[in-house]
Structure formats: C-alpha cells, structure tokens
C-alpha cells in the first residue's frame, strides 16, 4: 500500500468497526437479545477485516515514485570518511 | 498500517477493545431495570419432627412456593439462582440460616412458578431448639448476568412457627 492507501485503510477500519459496534448494540438492545449483538458485531469484524487488511488495488492509487535505476548510477553513494572513526574517544577517569 | 500483519493486529486490538466497551455498556443498561418480584410460601404440612440420636433437632416439611421473578430478567441475564432459607434465633446463636430449597432459572418464562415440594435440603438444628420455634422464610435470588456484576437480593417472609412437640 502507499501512504494515502494506508491512511485510508486505517480510517476505514476505525469507522467500520465503530459503526458495526453501534449497529450491533442498538439492534441487540432493541430486540433484547445479547446474542444478536454479538453476532452482528462478529460479522462486522470479519467484513472490516476483508475490506481493510488485504492489499487491495484501491489502496495503491498513489504509488510511491522510487528513483529510476539508471539515475542511481549517475549519483554514486558518498563514501564514509576516516574522520567518522575518530569520534569515539576513550573516557578518562 | 505498514504491512498485512500490522494492519491485522491493529484491527484485532481495536475490535476487542470495542467489544469490551460494548459489554460494559450492556452491563450498565441493567441499572435501568427496576425489578418487582412477588413471592408467597406456605408450609403445607410438617412431615415429621424428631430429635436425632446426636441431640440435634430435625424437621421435614412440605412447602408450597409460588413466585414471579420475571421482572428480574433483562437482555443481559444468563440465569437466576433462587433459594429459600429458614432463619431463626437461638440462645446460642443470634442468626441461624438453613437453605431448604434452591433452583436455577435459565429462561424468563420459567421464572413464574408454583412448586410443591418437601425441603430439598435437611433442616437440622445445631442443638435442640426447634420446638415451638418461630422462624422466617427468606427467598434469596442471585441474578447472574452475561457480562458484568452479579446482583443478590431477597425478600423476607416472617411469621412461621414449628410445632411445640415432636411428632
């Protein structure tokens, strides 16, 4: 997933779970059936999982632009200089 | 929300947390229930009344228990445990309580009942104090919820008396 997709998936997950919880509680309370509440919520959790967890294409609509391999060769990685090693000084008591 | 496992874990945690809140809320709705149970108990007959060889009095009686506990049930009730206890005073102990009968009610329809039975558990005194004894019959109930705290309450029915002599 790309960044936008991740954000979308997270928001969708939270809204869907909360939404199903509210529906489940309301229905259970009105029908005076605890089992109904649990059942609706369980279905909601499964549905939310199917929608937000797998890597659906809709979450990849703004793909990250990685650097093209041909460009990489034009800009070689900087080598670490010898100054880096001398930073560690022994502690004198 | 980086990887599959990460998202699955986040979803699972959130889902279970919400479930916890829903159960707490369901338990809270029980406080809106104001129960109005009604109970009547008759001692139809004293079957026998003897002093045991070890010196303790024992009495067996036939009881008619009639109760309507339907108002105790809510959507969050798993079962109601009800028991009938005899209470009386003796010189040695200020309070003696003996459970004579109990039942588990799992459905609201079964909470309105009339039953005629001899005492399920033996009514044995610690000593020989029961002749002519005045006692209360108290019906206790424990409402066990599906989620949340158990509620225990009772109703006291006074004014019963055992025979003055053994039979």
TrEMBL record, chain A:
Protein name: Uncharacterized protein
Organism annotation: Trifolium pratense
Automatic annotation (TrEMBL), chain B:
Taxonomic superkingdom: Eukaryota
Protein name: Uncharacterized protein
């Amino acid at each position: 997933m790309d960044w936008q997709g991740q954000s979308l998936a997270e928001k969708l997950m939270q809204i869907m779970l909360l939404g199903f919880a509210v529906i489940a509680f309301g229905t259970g309370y009105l029908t005076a059936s605890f089992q109904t509440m649990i059942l609706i919520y369980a279905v909601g959790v499964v549905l939310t999982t199917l929608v937000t967890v797998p890597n659906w294409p809709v979450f990849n609509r703004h793909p990250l632009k990685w650097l093209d391999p041909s460009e990489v060769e034009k800009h070689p990685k900087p080598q670490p200089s010898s100054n880096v090693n001398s930073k560690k000084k022994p502690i004198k008591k | 929300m980086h990887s599959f496992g990460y998202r699955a874990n986040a979803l699972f945690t959130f889902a279970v947390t919400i479930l916890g809140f829903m159960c707490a809320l369901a338990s809270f709705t029980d406080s809106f229930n104001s129960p109005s149970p009604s109970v009547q108990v008759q001692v139809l007959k004293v079957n026998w009344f003897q002093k045991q060889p070890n010196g303790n009095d024992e009495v067996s009686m036939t009881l008619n228990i009639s109760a309507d506990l339907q108002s105790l049930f809510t959507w969050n009730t798993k079962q109601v445990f009800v028991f009938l206890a005899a209470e009386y005073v003796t010189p040695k102990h200020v309070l003696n309580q003996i459970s004579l009968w109990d039942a588990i009610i799992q459905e609201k329809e079964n909470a309105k009942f009339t039953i005629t039975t001899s005492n399920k558990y033996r009514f044995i005194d610690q000593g020989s104090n029961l002749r002519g004894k005045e006692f209360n019959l108290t019906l206790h109930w424990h409402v066990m919820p599906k989620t949340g705290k158990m509620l225990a309450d009772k109703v006291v029915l006074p004014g019963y008396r055992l025979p003055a002599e053994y039979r």
